[in-house]
Write a structure and sequence with these properties.
In chain A, 76% of the residues lie in helices and 3% in strands. By secondary structure, chain A is mainly α. Chain A has one domain. Chain B has one domain: ABC transporter involved in vitamin B12 uptake, BtuC, CATH 1.10.3470. In chain B, helix 1 packs antiparallel against helix 2 and helix 3 crosses helix 9. Classes of the chains: A mainly alpha, B mainly alpha.
Chain lengths: 305, 326
């Protein structure tokens, strides 16, 4: 029972992390109508920055804040140099152009940091575990991730739904020309939104860094999961991204933890252990297929887009 | 400079002649590497040609085409692992398995449009990737070595490099011919009509979903054939064959060469893989050049190489005889 509870929390933590990535992806798509495959590269860049800056400053928190700012700057630079030229083009152009960016980023990281991975050690105050229920210990770092991502989700909600910038973002999503005609600097707005998405990806990357190794290609695996999340949630919908990210995170974590056991009760032990790793990694794709059969536009489709 | 002798046709003919004569060069000059390289190029060109059927002609932006390479390859690899070497069993199984996979994911993915379609095909291909990565019996992540190439009746012997090259080349030309016939048939016209305006095609009575699905399955089956050839070529198959960046490579080949043209994907495959070979000879960090180069192609050369060639042809034609170019 403790194990189950712990795995649920792990799933929640993973899901919230996926949400950070998917929110940026869905925001950029919903507003700029841009498919950004290089989103995973920004996640990777955030992790590399965090590992480097933390080593320089000797402080995890300082390193994280610096990395966040640096990823924001990289994101805005990418928008100004490349993405701006891709708006209004065919989606295939987006896919190819940002695929080129992935090649560039992967190789640039290899050039700067070398082919070996980095590690980001946790500060002592986050390395332990805390007692959240009587007799139940949980990693304080994972708990910190849950708290941070939940606050970011709340911040995003307030930003998009309750501020003037958010209003412009929503207006820009539904009618770009109209907002521009009303005198809003739409170019600057787009740069800001892209930077925000980049910073969210960078935040996810730097938070994941102490749990996994920081390495080239780390963004590519998780990018696919972020795609699955956006497809399930409905492209362009932040609320959908949150719900879908939690679904995917929890299903994936619980599936990997308990599916082999469930399979063992149905099949012979050898067959079960041979098939379990393959089948449990398929669960989220099955979920996606089921959602698509029922609602081809995702759970919370943005509708007009 | 009119009729058959346009820059585009001349370049295509030269490429075909070069491909046909390549083994002669390789034998005469003892350059074995170039034959291996071009066998690989021809096989990946076959995959790109099959992708072009859905991407170029059908307007279906599949980002999961490498999955068929993997499925075709694993069909050969798994059967060889179980001791079945006959190509008469291996290849039909490879084709059937890819067709079946294409049918299932096509039926699901074609319910959606646009970005959803891109992401879903990508996700399903990754699912197949993780599936084979988890199969410990067939090597899991490490892949599967194939100790014997597919066996056919004498005198066909795929272990002979020259023979194998010509088999691949013949299949490639066969596929190009097949797709050319297909796209000029009623079926192909309907699929292309659905690309331009699906609502209209439906309104005049075409069941576009079924047409697209059949097109998707044909492309997947041809992709599986390329996979079977690739596994035979490398004597090895691993999940990396179907990693999503490989799907990206195939899209690049199609776009670089020229979408919705019969020979475009072949030109693109040759251009991309030779470019990779040249760049990796210059620097270890060759992708840092390739990435931005790709971006430039997307931004400034939408028609791909084929488009540039016909543009060149048109320019030359207008210079010689202003009436021809119009």
């Amino acid at each position: 029972m403790t194990l189950f509870f712990e795995q649920c929390l792990n799933g929640l933590q993973f899901g919230l992390l996926l949400f950070l990535l998917a929110a940026g992806l869905t925001l950029v798509f919903g507003i700029m109508d841009l498919v950004n495959l290089a989103h995973g590269s920004l996640y990777m860049v955030g992790a590399y920055f965090a590992a480097t800056f933390a080593a320089w400053t000797g402080s995890f928190v300082f390193g994280a804040v610096l990395a966040l700012c640096a990823t924001l700057v990289v994101g805005m630079a990418v928008e100004v140099i490349v993405m701006r030229r891709l708006y209004g083009r065919d989606h295939l152009d987006h896919v190819l152009g940002t695929f080129g960016l992935i090649l560039f980023f992967d190789e640039a990281v290899r050039l700067i940091w070398g082919p070996a991975g980095l590690s980001l050690p946790l500060p002592s105050w986050l390395a332990g575990s805390v007692q959240i229920l009587p007799g139940f210990q949980y990693s304080s770092y994972r708990l910190a991730i849950i708290v941070v991502t939940l606050s970011v989700a709340a911040f995003l909600y307030v930003l998009v739904m309750r501020t003037r910038i958010g209003m412009l973002i929503r207006a820009g999503a539904s009618n770009r020309e109209m907002v521009g005609a009303l005198g809003v600097n739409i170019k600057l707005l787009y740069t800001l939104v892209f930077g925000l998405g980049a910073a969210l990806a960078g935040l996810a990357g730097l938070m994941q860094a102490p749990i996994l190794t920081v390495q080239i290609g780390m963004g590519e695996n998780i990018l696919i999961l972020a795609f699955v999340v956006t497809v399930i949630g409905g492209i362009g919908s932040i609320r959908g991204a949150l719900v879908a990210a939690l679904l995917v995170g929890i299903l994936d974590t619980l599936g990997r933890a308990f599916f082999p056991d469930i399979l063992r009760t149905m099949l012979s032990p050898t067959a079960a252990s041979a098939l379990a790793p393959a089948l449990s990694s398929m669960l989220i794709y099955l979920l996606m297929a089921i959602v698509l059969v029922i609602k081809p536009e995702g759970l919370f489709s943005a509708g007009n887009k | 400079m009119s009729g058959a002798f346009t820059a585009r046709n001349v370049a295509t003919a030269a490429l075909i002649a070069g491909l046909v004569l390549l083994p002669v060069y390789s034998q005469v000059f003892g350059d074995r590497f170039i034959l291996t390289l071009f066998t690989r190029i021809v096989i990946l060109a076959l995959a790109a040609v099959s992708l072009n059927l859905i991407l170029g002609f059908g307007g279906m932006m599949s980002f999961g085409h490498a999955a068929y390479l993997g499925i075709g390859g694993y069909a050969v690899g798994m059967l060889a692992h179980e001791g079945i070497y006959s190509g008469f069993i291996q290849w039909p199984v490879a084709l059937l398995a890819s067709a079946l996979f294409a049918l299932v994911i096509g039926a699901l993915s074609l319910r959606t449009r646009g970005v959803y379609f891109i992401m879903i095909t990508l996700a399903f291909a990754q699912m197949a990737y993780y599936l084979v990565s988890g199969l410990a019996r067939y090597g899991g992540d490490d892949g599967l070595t194939i100790y014997k190439r597919s066996q056919f009746i004498e005198p066909l012997n795929l272990s002979n490099k020259v023979q194998f090259y010509y088999v691949c080349l013949a299949i490639l030309f066969g596929a190009i011919y097949l797709i050319w016939r297909l796209t000029n048939s009623r079926f192909g016209m309907a699929v292309q009509g659905a690309r331009s305006n699906e609502a209209r095609m439906r309104a005049i009575g075409f069941p576009t979903y079924r047409y697209r699905l059949v097109c998707f399955v044909i492309a997947g089956t041809l992709g599986g054939l390329a996979g079977a050839l690739l596994a035979n070529h490398a004597d090895f198959i691993s999940p990396a064959t179907m990693y999503w960046t490989r799907s990206g490579d195939l899209i690049i080949m199609v776009v670089l060469g020229g979408m919705a043209t019969p020979f475009g994907p072949l030109i693109g495959a040759v251009a991309l893989l030779v470019l990779e070979e040249v760049l990796s000879g210059i620097t270890e960090y060759w992708q840092i050049i390739l990435g931005p180069l790709l971006l430039l192609v997307v931004l400034f050369a939408r028609g791909g190489i084929d488009g540039l060639l016909s543009l060149l042809g048109a320019k030359v034609a207008t210079k010689v005889n202003p009436k021809v170019g119009s």
